[in-house]
Amino acid sequence: MSSMEIWSNDQPQTLSAPYFQSPEFTLFQGDSLELMRGMADAQFDMIFADPPYFLSNGGVTCKNGRMVSVDKGRWDRSQGAQANHEFNMAWLNECQRLLKPNGTMWVSGTHHVIYSIGFAMQLLDFKILNDIAWFKVNPPPNLSCRYFTHGTETILWAAKNHKAKYTFNYALMKEENGGKQMKNLWSIMSPRKDEKTFGKHPTQKPMELLRRIVLASTDEGATILDPFSGSGTTGIAAVSHGRKYVGLDQSDEYLDLSIRRFQGLQELQEAEG
């Protein structure tokens, strides 16, 4: 197919041709909000989003022992608290519309953005199920020495609304936690070196984090959306476990990285038979 047809109110809407498409892994390039507005309701079983943190202000951080700029690009620059919140309301509203009736939404963020996300979710009548504290184990040091090192990130998990009969694979999560109930504190290392074989993204999430999210809240055959796809970690985790994936991103650099990672996964799966 050269394009994806999305049906709304019995009339076909057509997105621009996918940047890349296979039966289980599809990427679109463009403004995420505009792309989502071109899709019909109730398309996805789960959405994972790692939205802009609005941190690209000319500051610095430590990476591999070196001081580097945190300027990730224009997409990550703050336009002020009110404008940032309005943006979060807009894309979350589209995500809620795109979720199936029993679908769930995961959003990852630091303190710079997560409180706006949580408030927006409440205003939109999502049902917040958990706030996951992701303990990064090996975070970069705090160069300013003027506050505590940021060693955690918050992930909000929410159902589409308070009526949703959402999926939670409790038994599997308990099994993965040595037979004990899994808590909302997850100790997971930052992405390993081998996860960056094909290239890297400034806010890349570890595969183990997305693997757990995918397995916890979807069943095999589910369709997953990531509106800020980045390096495609959500998609690789989804396809690795029998789910289908749609990713949206503006950057051809990161879309190409996602394709290389997907093709690498295909080669590995073929080699393993």
UniProtKB/TrEMBL annotation:
Keywords: Methyltransferase, Transferase
Location of the DNA methylase N-4/N-6 domain: 45-258
GO biological process: methylation
PROSITE patterns: N6_MTASE
GO cellular component entries: cytoplasm
The EC number(s) this enzyme carries: 2.1.1.-
Name under which the protein is recorded: Methyltransferase
The organism of origin for this protein: Microvenator marinus
